[in-house]
Specification:
312 residues, eight-stranded antiparallel sheet, alpha+beta, Alpha-Beta Plaits, Ribosomal Protein S5, domain 2
Length: 312
């Protein structure tokens, strides 16, 4: 048996929810934005093949590839499958170090596909724990704000409660999410290292106000309040100077009428929220002309992807 699974790109943090909020996104033009993984049974062992436009950015050694690590962890935890074999083909279609959950997309697609092929030995919660474990090996710390939305879809709030890791919160159907990847990459671990070890009391209070205000506004479906709450006091002040063109872009997007903008994940991708397609297209045009810095850059107008990982 063989099957192919797709896992979507994600926007983590969403300015107001550092390590606590993440959203899956899909372009409105119908094209897929994310990674695909095909798995098929073989006699024994783990075989891996990487293809796609970003395959050359993956580790040369097979046992350092994130899809291989996923398979090894999967078989370690599924004792009854210790003699099983699998071939994995990773279609690496997401740029690495983009701030769009590239590693999470690969992790989610691989583990989801393995669980499907071997008739669901793990629950969704168990799978999510494994996804976070592998993601932590890439970024330096375990967090779920990319893997959870890539797996489950929608806008996810990380709870880290004993009985529930995350839960979905309401989204605004009228919002368009414009994402612009300039074509350069940033190391997630290095971008995390830019953040201070401690924050002042005033920052903590403001962070709590903005996050709780955004969650409240989401449930009340108060778009104006939700947009006003999308303020980053945790990461943007420290990361923005290290993302070329980010601050001028944020100013220009505001003048174009977007509701809010911010750094997607650790950057360098920028996201902007618009309440109409016309505003989103103006933002798209400006970003294409002014924010992209290399041939590999792109801009997409997206909606929230409610499906998450799925067989394609």
């Amino acid at each position: 048996m063989s099957l192919t699974v797709f896992a979507p790109a994600t926007i983590a943090n969403l300015s107001v929810g550092f390590d606590l909020l993440g959203a899956a996104v899909e372009p409105i033009d119908g094209n897929l934005l994310g990674d695909r993984v095909m798995v098929e049974g073989i006699a024994k062992g783990i075989e891996l093949e990487s293809v796609g436009p970003y395959k050359n950015f993956l580790p040369e050694k097979e046992d350092e590839n994130i899809a291989f690590l996923c398979a090894r962890l999967f078989f370690e935890k599924a004792a009854k499958l210790k003699n099983a074999g699998i071939k994995i083909t990773l279609y690496k279609e997401m740029p690495i170090g983009s701030g769009l959950g590239s590693s999470a997309s690969s992790v989610v697609a691989t583990l989801f596909a393995l669980n499907e092929v071997f008739d669901h030995p793990f629950s969704s919660e168990e799978l999510l724990l494994m996804m976070g474990e592998i993601e932590g090996r890439v970024s330096g710390s375990i967090h779920y704000d990319n893997v959870a939305p890539a797996f489950l879809g929608g806008l996810q709030l990380m709870l880290n409660a004993n009985h529930k890791l995350c839960d979905s919160i309401p989204v605004f159907d009228s919002w368009f999410w414009v994402i612009a990847y300039p074509g350069t990459s940033l190391n997630t671990s290095k971008m995390r290292a830019l953040l201070p070890e401690k924050y002042g009391r005033a920052d903590l209070i403001r962070y709590g106000q903005y996050l709780s205000g955004f969650i409240h506004a989401s449930y009340k479906q108060n778009e104006k309040l939700a947009a006003e709450m999308l303020v980053d006091v945790v990461a943007e002040p420290y990361r923005s100077p290290h993302i070329p063109g980010y601050l001028p872009a944020k100013c220009a997007l505001s003048e174009l009428g977007v509701l809010a903008s911010g750094i997607s994940g650790s950057g360098p991708t920028i996201f902007a929220v618009a309440d109409s397609k016309e505003v989103a297209q103006r933002a798209e045009d400006w970003l294409k002309k002014n924010y992209l810095t290399s041939k590999g850059g792109f801009v997409r107008i997206c909606k929230i992807d409610r499906r998450g990982a799925r067989v394609v």
